[in-house]
Amino acid sequence: MSLPKDNKDSIPEPVKGLEGIVAADTNLSSVNGEKGILRYCGYNIDDLAFNTTFEETICLLYDNELPNQERLEEMTKKVGEARVLPDEVIRIITELVGKTSPMSTLRTVVSVLGHYEKNVPLKELPPKALRLVGQISTAVAIIHRLRKKLPIIEADPSKGHAEDFLRMLHGKEPTKIQVDALNLYLILLADHGFNASTFSARVTAGTLANLHSAITSAVGTLSGPLHGGANEKAMDMIIEVGTKKNASKYIQNAFDSKQKIMGFGHRVYKVDDARKPHLKKMAKKLWEEKNEMKLFEVAEEIEKQVKDRKPIITNVDFYSAPLLYGLDIPTDLFTPLFAMSRIAGWTAHVLEQYRNNRLIRPRARYVGQIDRTFRPIEQR
User: Fold this and answer.
1) Which residues of the chain have pLDDT under 70?
2) Which of the 8 DSSP states describes residue 114?
3) Phi and psi torsions of 171, nearest 5°
């Protein structure tokens, strides 16, 4: 793009989408896109995936250390106790359900929950943040129950986060594989560097706005189809394809029409997303337990057909879709489930921003007209 002549405010050409730009330091997670490695606080996600719980991941992100048994029990108790929403918030959810999307309702809930919290000094913020971790899961379950005209299931603080959410959502005790599957999902999506929603949370926190304002920003950012909504679209595609034999024609048509195929490609990863193999493995277990492999096999065939045509990576959205669908979670709840996981990373990042804050204020390069002549309104 050519700059206007004599533009004294011209600055170096911007990097579109801030691709590759390092905006800050963090101790929380690192992504090695060349090798396909994701680490939380230095621990490889491959080690954490099947060997820890979501509560352990929260401890790791908040403490920068994996917990001992006492700390884990304390965290499980605190998050469990937080899964109880104020009656006034439940009434607001009741009023909104059916009038807007689950994600819009959840964004409003996060904002409203801030009214029930006191302003506290930085050292007292972690317990406040943890309450949001618990509250979001209950809000998602209540949104679903109310829209189906089903009774609300009260939280059971004695249970683990994944188990209790599935019980509150479906009104029955989940199987061990179902609990393991959701636990894995929550671990794998808890944090991922400076993704769009995490960055927006930190930008808001950087102004010294309160915690709930920062998380409301994050939820709004996640609602976009190019961020949190991608796995919903991936599942819609898998359902539309329907059978393995339809996959080749569908994908060829998508390539011919230059249609974006959800679940493939990534801004950072140059090889398959580090989380993909774990999600694929667990999704297969879920569908095997259901004794219904059709949709999972369609997903595998779609992946094969895409990669036969182009060396494009499979990202986290593709196999998280059949995993969540295998848990009988409706597709329009996929993004709220993403928020239920990422709230651990969001809150940890906001706390990190507050501890070493500097207002995030990049510049823009002006490319419009300059030195224009003003005319009074009667001469225009």
Assistant:
1) 1-10
2) G
3) 75, 20
Q: Are 219 and 242 in a shared domain?
A: no
CATH number of the domain enclosing 170: 1.10.580.10
- Percent helix, strand, coil in the chain (nearest 5)? 60, 5, 40
pLDDT of residue 225: 84
Bridge partners (DSSP) of residue 44 are 39
**Which residue reads 């317990």 in tokens?**
127
pLDDT digits (tens, 9 = 90+) for 280-333: 999 999 999 999 999 999 999 999 999 999 999 999 999 999 999 999 999 999
Distance CA(59)–CA(361), nearest Å, equals 31
Instruction: Please tell me whether residues 94 and 163 are part of one structural domain.
Output: yes
Residues belonging to the active site: 266, 317
Q: What pLDDT does residue 119 have?
A: 86
Q: At a CB cut-off of 8 Å and minimum separation 6, what does 364 contact?
A: 14
Give the residue among 218, 242, 225 at the shortest CA–CA distance from 341: 218
Place of tokens 């999902």: 185
- Which amino acid is present at 59? C
**CATH code assigned at 237:** 1.10.230.10
Q: Quick one: pLDDT at residue 2?
A: 58
Q: Work out how many domains the chain is built from and give that number.
A: 2
Give the residue carrying structure tokens 């949709």. 295
| Cβ 176 vs Cβ 369: under 8 Å | no
The answer to whether residues 66 and 43 touch, using CB atoms and an 8 Å cutoff, is: yes
How wide is the angle at C-alpha 209 spanned by C-alphas 230 and 353, nearest 5°? Answer: 70
Strand partners, 100: 97
Q: Against a cut of 0.90, is the pTM above it?
A: yes
Q: How far is CA 228 from CA 5, 60, 247, in A?
A: 41, 23, 24
How far is 222 from 215, CA to CA, in rounded Å?
10
**Which alpha helices (H) appear in 159-275, and where do they start and end?**
161-170, 176-188, 196-206, 211-222, 230-241, 244-256
Q: What's the domain range around 238?
A: 230-326
The number of residues making up the chain comes to: 380
| 23 belongs to a structural domain | no
